[in-house]
Specification:
By secondary structure, this protein is of the alpha/beta class. It has helices spanning about 15-25, 45-50, 65-75, 95-105, 155-160, 175-185, 210-220, 225, and strands at about 1-10, 30-35, 55-60, 80-85, 90, 110-120, 125-130, 150-155, 190-205. Helices cover about 30% and strands about 25% of the residues.
């Protein structure tokens, strides 16, 4: 079984597309944990209509300090052999789970990742992010990889302490930090690229990436300092 985690906060107007893309997966053996970070809009009402599917579980434990905490709430509850993360404003192609699960049948695979299509909502255009092969370090994947591209063996994620608050005080790049931690702990295992574009990423003014760029422009956030944490 695969555990899927979506962390959400006040995205009642977007989350349905993410949920529908999970329900449309060709691979059906999954549990879907929707972790609400204390939404004050109609998110609960929107999600409630999907709870008739016993694979979907809604958790609201109130506002957390960092969104890494929200994801970790889901990781702690995960019972699947494999685990992946879909942000509430994005969606997957129907074969995302199937294509990743097939590769994870190899015991020496720790992490898989596939390509992403970025949809620039304000511009009305879409672009494919170039596929970059993992070559023993995630340095070349910075700016390429997103958490929604990835699938991990769950036991390995729990073993390394899940998403790190200490190293990702503002949440950015927590996906790469997790990949590094897993592969450093298990150098005998590998990270495998699936050469398909299976993750649809919505670039809009309220997205994490756009907030990051806005922070950088204001001098609030400097990535080189974040990496030193």
């Amino acid at each position: 079984m695969i555990t899927i985690i979506t962390s959400t906060y006040n995205r009642s107007y977007l989350i349905s597309k993410a949920i529908e893309s999970v329900l449309q997966q060709t691979y059906k053996d999954f549990e879907y944990l929707i972790i609400d970070d204390g939404s004050t809009d109609k998110t609960r009402k929107v999600v409630k209509k999907y709870l008739v599917d016993p694979r979907i579980h809604y958790v609201n434990e109130g506002k957390q300090e960092y969104y890494t905490h929200v994801r970790n709430i889901g990781v702690k509850r995960a019972t699947g052999r494999l685990i992946c993360f879909l942000d509430d404003d994005n969606w997957w192609e129907p074969t995302f789970l199937e294509d990743h699960e097939r590769v994870h049948r190899q015991k020496d695979v720790a992490v898989t990742y596939s390509g992403r299509i970025v949809h620039f909502v304000d511009k009305g255009v879409s672009e494919k992010v170039p596929l970059v092969k993992y070559m023993g370090t995630t340095d070349a994947l910075n700016g390429v990889l997103d958490v929604g591209d990835l699938m991990f063996k769950t036991a390995l994620v729990k073993e390394v302490g899940m998403f790190s608050k200490e190293k990702d005080m503002i949440g950015y790049c927590s996906d790469l930090r997790l990949v590094d931690a897993v592969l450093e702990a298990h150098p005998e295992m590998k990270m495998v690229l699936i050469p398909k574009f299976l993750h649809n990423y919505r670039a809009h003014s309220g997205s994490m990436t756009q907030r990051k760029l806005a922070d950088r422009a204001k001098g609030i956030f400097r990535e080189e300092e974040q990496w030193k944490l």
